[in-house]
Task: structure prediction
Amino acid sequence: EALRELSTGAMTVAVLLSYFDLGTTVAVGIQYFRIGNTQDGYTTIGMLVGSLMIQALVTFATGQGSLATLVTICGGKTMFDTCSVLADHSLSAAGSVNPVRALAGTRMQELVLDALPQTFYQLSVLVQLEYGERDYLLWFSLLFSCLSIGYVGVVLEFDMETDLNYGKLFAQILGYIPSNSRMRTVVVGVGIMCWIMGFLAARMMAMAVLGIGDAEMFVIWVGAELVLFMVARAAIEGTFRFYQAGLDSAPASLFMNVFMYVGALGVPLPFGRFPGAYGPSLFVPWVLCMLALNPAMLLFGLSLEGSSQIAFTEDELVWALGGATAVASAGVAMMAAAMNPSHRQPFFGRLSLKQYVAELWGTRTYAPVGSGIDASRAHLLKFSRHYWPPKHQVRDWLESNWDAWDAAPPQWFTPRFIKRITTAAPPEVLPLAVLRELAQKYLSKSQVGGHRGQPETDAGGHQQSSMGSFDSRRWAPQVEEMSRKELVRTETERRASKAFARAKQLWIWIAALAFSYADLVSTVVVGLQYLDMGTAQGTRAAHMTFVMLGVSLGMQALRGGACFSSRRACDLGGGVGGQTTVGHVSCHVQQASSGLKHADLYTDCNEVHAGCHGFAATSCCTVLSCSPA
Result:
């Protein structure tokens, strides 16, 4: 990747365009304030801040680490991921996402959550301005947003299609961009850019006119399209759940469906044909349907009462829509003519992600870590469990190999993989060895805690996994006599109890956050009311209120940074036996015995020292323990 960047500079240009687009968005917001459009200024800046917050939540939910989340809030995620790709590893110690995929996700989030909404809103404002009010900065920002979206879309598409690792993993889908002809490659790139820019301009124009004509009709139209999209995708995939682990819960999947629908409104990347995204059965019909509906949406919007606010004439809008549609059609023609003929079929097939994973389960032997069919299958289980192969296939594979892997661990048989299996796999597919070990821990914790399914916690509120708290070996004879059906029922009960405890804790956190932000907002409102008094005393009171609030937030930020540094130091301070103290954080590390092997399955461990003689504390200083050999 570093060598390719030195020869092309594509990533550098994409980063510069991304931040230039960010700068123009801020400049447009300031310009709105200058011309007296205060509401538009607040909306523009608010959309930008909201986009960064949502991106930060997605970054944290996908396990990319606290550092990456903080960088995202500050608007630096694109640069962060680009550096990770060039370094060939994540710059975040806790990062669990491939850097190439993380960069692709970041670019998609920027396009869908920031560039698209900003383009739509700025276009909606622009078409209502009279000729003399249309500042060059507004035109330039809109044009540059389209160019930036088009170029970033091309770079994102090329990064995914030409990545050697992904090309080997999903050879049947990826690979339509030719690599043996520079001219054809350039034609495909120009075609992608024309397709994205033309589709974006046509769709945003039609939607802006409809939104101005009648906001209620706009909501009904877009809502109907969203429901139709979700129903069609669920019918094809067999579930509405998102395919990426960490984002496959019901609320997250609903959000990702909305995310994909919004993306299809303005950034219909060819990568959308990948099973699990839009899929080959839905991608081409959907985007062509949207393109065909644009004239109807535009004319319907112009027929509504609110269209009188539009400063452009009907002829100007129709000609502009026709021109944008022609550009998009020319882009499709260039792509179709220059792409590799062998990879045209994935654009029109009927392959769902479940079918694709089941096919790769029995045929693929390549994997990012390790080699052979076992390594490939371990990689496939990184998808959401809703897309795994049939349960009996996964169960037979795990049951027949688990003991051998435990005795001589392959390269991919890591604590992360063990945790993935024990937490995500349905109880009925788990191997007997894992079911028995989990049952022993659960039964012993139930006895110690006094309540079935209530795990012990340490003083910091973290789950206590140390075998010093209880002796699970005394339950071994009873567990050995349990049938597989009883073990599955016990594990199901354990997970239900754990889910209930987490849900209860979540509601407590939500209530605490609600009260906290209600207090923060009320403080800001009080400060603004002081300013509205218009007196010197009111101004002083407002300044004092905002200064106190700023000092409070600053001290909290410093404390958070100090705690983060202490925890990182704690990560590095673990040893064999004894105690490590960093600041106010104290971590106890137990002495390992020669009969102990892998990390406790209950532990949320991010890193475990190899061998049987040491442990490392996790970032939250949870003590690691070992299970009997």
About this structure: The first strand starts at residue 579 and ends at 582. Strands lie at 579-582, 585-588, 596-599, 626-628. Residues 336 and 554 are 55 Å apart (CA to CA).
